[in-house]
Amino acid sequence: MTTETRNPELSDRDREILKAVIATYILSAEPVSSRLVAKRGGLGLSAATIRNAMADLEEWGYLAQPHTSAGRVPTGEAYHLFIESLMEERKLSARDRRYIDAHLRSSPTDAERMMQMASHLLSELSQQVGIVVTPVVGDTVLKAVDFIPVSGRKVLSVVVSATGFIDNKVIETDHPLSREKLLEISNYLNQNFAGMTLREIRDRLVAMMSEARAQMDRLLALTIELASQGFAVGDQAGVVVDGTSTILSQPELGDIQRVRRLFETFADRARLVRMLNQCMTGTGLRVVIGKESDLTSELNFSFVATTYGIGEQPLGTLGIFGPSRMEYQKIIPLVDYLGETLSRLLARGLGGGDQVMRS
Q1: Do 60 and 146 belong together in one domain?
Q2: 25: containing domain
Q3: Using one digit for the tens of pLDDT, what is the confidence trace for 52-99?
Q4: What's the domain count of the chain?
Q5: DSSP code per residue over 282-334
Q6: Taking the complete model, does pTM exceed 0.85, yes or no?
Q7: Is residue 358 a part of any domain in this protein?
Q8: Rounded to whole angstroms, how far apart are CA atoms 220 and 129?
Q9: Rounded distance, CA 204 to CA 211, Å?
Q10: What is the pLDDT of residues 183-227, one digit of tens each?
Q11: Cα–Cα distance between 308 and 150 in angstroms, integer?
């Protein structure tokens, strides 16, 4: 249901006044008075007329009046209406598109760095916080696995996904294994399990452990031992954050208590991922404002996010987090384009190379 349906009395003049209030507040970060709208809005209306309209907009839930000011500020409802039907549609500039393409295609040498670069680009081009939620390891599809002897009974497990992500970990075996035996085990897994998710492989291996033939076949027993540890997966996605210090200059963070809440929000990564996942339902772009989620309500911020993935399979989320008065005309196409570009590069195997993501 759209905002217009809930408030059919919102006239064209009301909409123009609301648009002017939002535009002014985005630039100034100060409560907006009717006099300021009359002076800067170019509406050809008197301050008294604008003041009456702003009172109506406040009654309808589009404006709020801080206790310490005679001016008014937009509400989350106002920002959503602005995004849906008031703001001028803008595409990302050709310059920014070229900048994103150049950095995502050439700078990263593996998937981890690509995610870091995506988060950095979101922050750099918006001057807000850039966030990228990386895929859950267990949901990634196996491309190849390699076991490399380290020392004694320690073995390095290198698990590469079809999209270029990799999980590295050192595991320990019951007995030392030669490079030749480890290569034989790696080849067995690559031939029999490539194309399955790590979670599916782990479940299959657990089932095989109870089969009698696992006790009879030494190679299979060793394979199960190594893969059970190497393919150990969790349900928690990772998250890459860039630019938390960038927004400290914003007026909204002039209070040290708000700064503390900002850093507390990003300190607990597991909680952060849960809140980010709560923001996203389904696929595509979404704008979450203020009290609409645990992530944004604490600071009354906004989160503009989209999913990225391969085809119909979503792999993660990326977005921009910052004050609700952010420049949505620029932020929305930026997030949208970066999500599309990242999806294309992942679908092509990070530009066609054999890059991997190292944990």
Answers
A1: no
A2: 3-86
A3: 999 999 999 999 988 766 799 999 999 999 999 888 878 899 999 999
A4: 3
A5: SSS-EEEEGGGSHHHHTTTEEEEEEEEEETTEEEEEEEEEEETTS-HHHHHHH
A6: no
A7: no
A8: 48
A9: 11
A10: 998 998 899 888 888 878 878 877 776 665 555 567 777 887 787
A11: 36
